[in-house]
Design brief:
Number of strands: 9
Structural class: alpha+beta
Bound molecules: iron/sulfur cluster, FE2/S2 (inorganic) cluster
Largest sheet: 5 strands, mixed
Helix content: 10-25%
Amino acid sequence: MSSFSFDGQPVPLQPGDTILQAAQRAGHEVPHLCWHPEVSASASCRVCTVRVDGRPAAACTTAAAAGQRVECHTADLRAQRLHLLQMLFVEGNHFCPGCEKSGHCLLQHQAERAGMTDLHYETLNPERPVDASHPDVLFEPNRCILCQLCVRASDELDGKQVFAIGGHGIATHLLINSASGRLGDSALAVTDRAAHICPVGALLPKRVGFAVPIGQRTFDDAETRG
Ligand code: SF4
Ligand code: FES
């Protein structure tokens, strides 16, 4: 079977594999935020950036090929990833201790893995009104990292196109497809995949907060588990 090298380890590949898919199947964790196995890849967050034969590339969209030399967990790539995550944190309001998604949040998990201990950059402290208009789903835009997972899930899995990304630069934001622009007037149902795919605490089903207690959550470490 053909293979490529991932941080010096041989990784077997199958036809159609991306670097991220093949590496994860072989047991390597490739840091990522905007990638999810159920929807198409968008390569928008760049947290999965690796170096392929010396050149930077997004592991989630770059095809794996026999003989490639892929570097992922090098000191310089780790440093770049850390800065990228620090920038994501200061662009929104990510107060982890007060968030229902704490312990289940992919942004929090990647930051911990990257060794993030402070914000580093000056916070922008945006003020974005919470949208609680939907009976079953809350939208907290201060936590949105614009990963587009809900956009793709609504389009590709639910066939609804409830979400889109609009605006420019720092004003880029998640748009909701309804006359009022509010979630409660959209076609979103709590049973939609889009209502559950958010990697952070921006889109949250209501009335299930803390159903899984702290200490038993996906990314809780040994210390938190007690
Ligand atoms: S609401 Fe969640 S899933 Fe949708 S773009 Fe924002 S962070 Fe991504
Ligand atoms: S996971 Fe690859 S760019 Fe976001």
